[in-house]
Amino acid sequence: MSDLAQFKKAYPIEVRFGDLDAMGHVNNAKFLTYLEQARINYYRDVIDDLPAFENFQLILARVECDFRAPIHYPGTVQVYVRTSRLGSKSFDLEYIIMTDEGVVAAEAVTVLVCYDYQRGHSIPMPDDWRARVLQFEPGLNG
Known about the structure:
The chain has helices spanning 28-47, 127-136; strands at residues 9-15, 58-67, 75-86, 90-98, 104-116, 121-122. Strands 1, 2, 3, 4, 5 and 6 form a six-stranded antiparallel sheet that branches. The chain is built from two helices and six strands. The longest helix has 20 residues, at 28-47. It is globular. With 142 residues, it is an alpha+beta fold.
């Protein structure tokens, strides 16, 4: 598990009754929704205010999630998120989902690619994005 001290951002997410499956714990697919919410908040806080959808230049290319413990209702989870890699056209976000009890429920990594939706291909990461991430995550190699 990554050291929580490496994470400067954490977002609380309320566990909803509708997140549960027939076994009485949060369904595995909802973990990805929690990652998405944290990812959007991190993007807004660190990279840029959310642009209009027609100007959004990111596409999710990969998700890897290791489930460690169940999440139960009611409660809140904290989703810790940080940039762990910067490439020329893509970057990785690393996550830890932690329960109210301090139990790590999941660890995950997503790969986001800078993408031109009109042309249908990847593009270089904008210089201002790179600068903002490096300012916020100074330990990264840019």
